[in-house]
Amino acid sequence: MRALLLVPVSLLAACAVNQTHRVGEITARPNVALKKSSQSIGLKLSDGVKDAWVSPRENGVGPLEVTAWTTSLSAAFATAFADAFTIKNGDSDLVLDIQDAELKLVPGAVDANGYVVSGAAQVRFKAQLLDRTGKQVAVTAGTSKSKTTCSAMDCAPSVAISAVESMYEAIAQDLFVNPKT
User: How many helices (H) does the chain have, and how many strands (E)?
Assistant: First the structure.
């Protein structure tokens, strides 16, 4: 009887692992603290930032379907920098040019048998800060990881939110606090 119970559980686990995780429009609230500036800042999402895609299953996680990514990044940008800058679309003193921002699901924890038991999200990003003339002021690149993991099929949005928050927190640190030119 015991062996009969294990087979259906294993089959259910295999089906859940292969189901597509979905992240649509999300509301991230990055925790950014910068000195108040009289300057305005705008956001440019370069061609390397896709709005929608499907990533295949890899490393025991996925596949992942992402939609409304540019809307999510734009809203998080405004939340991250609104306390320090005037947010402007178009003619601004500074422009945060995000050249790449790709969301992925990755293993958060693995059991003794090597099976993924929770997932995390990460965003691989490249960004530069430009002045009004388009001159590069500072650059950054990195991979931000969600601060939390999850084990339910419908929790991909929550770890994606955390990864986006981590990305903007890193960008603020790298471009404004410890700028790399």
Answer: 3, 8
Tokens standing for residue 154: 């419908």
Tell the residue number behind the tokens 């991909």, with chain if given.
Answer: 156
Residue 85, sorted as left (phi over 0), alpha (psi -120 to 50) or beta, turns out to be beta
Could you read off the pLDDT of 95-119 as tens digits, one per residue?
Answer: 999 999 999 999 988 889 888 888 8
Is 75 exposed, middle or buried (CB count within 10 Å of its CB: 0-12, 13-18, 19+)? middle
Query: How far apart are alpha carbons 170 and 58 in whole angstroms?
Result: 26
**pLDDT score of 2:** 44
Residue pair 118/60 in contact (Cβ under 8 Å)? The answer is no
Sign of the torsion formed by the C-alpha atoms of 173, 180, 84 and 125: negative
What tens digit of pLDDT does each residue of 55-98 get?
998 888 889 999 999 999 999 999 999 999 999 988 999 999 99
Spatial distance between the Cα atoms of 119 and 109, rounded to a whole number of angstroms: 7
